[in-house]
Design brief:
The protein is an alpha+beta fold. The protein is built from 8 helices and 12 strands. Strands 1, 2, 3, 4, 5, 6, 7, 8, 9, 10, 11 and 12 form a 12-stranded mixed beta sheet that branches. The radius of gyration is 18 Å and the shape is globular.
Length: 261
């Protein structure tokens, strides 16, 4: 039976940055004037929830350029509610390019418990810097992050860890297999549910149920918070089929574009 997904959850899945908590004093900021939502951290920025007239496009692009430093990793996230409806084509005509790390994603929602994890997998919430660094190394390896970007991010690791511990978001989970860090996933809580990001498994540990275990752990976390719903955005040829098997339902397609700067 197809699960019932509320309009609120569909909106959350399409534009999660609009609903993420922004703790006072954190390095994450959000600008949202109703036309565009720009959320950014130390090294990254996301532009989403576009809602403006076509003749305002150049003004909005200029605003984003003003808000986001050129050295940050930046992407526009364009879903079916975007206005103007041909925004992706308009941006491509202005020199934007499909994001090489995910030009198209499927927004997905889970509202019922996923399967229990396989035996022999330990998943724990990251509470030490050693676990935090180990989780990030697994993530970098899984996503084949270039060494120069790793070095830039390593310089920020201690500050990121201390900030996450202070504000309680994002929450990182680390999965261990045979005593080794094997997989990781993060969770961003909100009043509407929990947004899953950065799920990744080490090459040597794939096919052992680690991704499933991390989804289940984050579902349990969402239930404990009183917000029993998960959302995520999946690549069609990697996490998408796994998430379908775990009970997630696709709600829309998201296109991601980057402006060469």
């Amino acid at each position: 039976m197809t699960p019932t997904i509320t309009d609120e959850l569909r909106e959350y899945a399409e534009t999660p940055d609009r609903f993420a908590p922004i703790p006072e004093g954190s390095s994450v900021t959000r600008f949202d004037d109703g036309r565009i939502c720009v959320i950014q951290g130390r090294t990254w920025a996301g532009v989403s929830a576009p809602l403006f007239r076509e003749e305002e496009l150049d003004e909005v692009i200029a605003l984003v350029r003003e808000l986001v430093p050129a050295d940050k990793q930046q992407a526009w996230w364009i879903g079916p509610s975007a206005q103007p409806v041909n925004l992706a084509e308009l941006l491509l005509g202005r020199g934007f390019q499909p994001a090489e790390d995910g030009p198209e994603l499927r927004a997905m929602v889970l509202t019922s418990p996923p399967p229990e994890p396989a035996q022999g997998i330990e998943v724990r919430r990251v509470e030490t810097f050693e676990d935090f660094a180990a989780a990030r190394e697994v993530q970098w390896d899984a996503f084949e992050v270039p060494e120069e970007r790793r070095e830039l991010q390593r310089a920020q690791l201690r500050d990121e860890f201390e900030e996450a511990m202070t504000h309680g978001t994002p929450v990182t989970f680390l999965a261990m297999l045979d005593g080794r860090p094997a997989a990781t996933g993060m969770a961003i809580p909100s009043d509407r549910g929990v947004f899953l990001i950065a799920g990744s498994t080490a090459t040597w540990a794939r096919g052992r149920g680690l991704y499933r275990a991390l989804v289940r752990t984050r579902w349990d976390y969402a239930v404990e918070r009183g917000t029993p719903a998960l959302i995520t955005e999946a690549l069609i040829d990697t996490s998408y089929p796994i998430l379908q098997r775990l009970g997630f339902t696709e709600v829309c397609t998201i296109r991601r574009l980057k402006e060469p700067r």
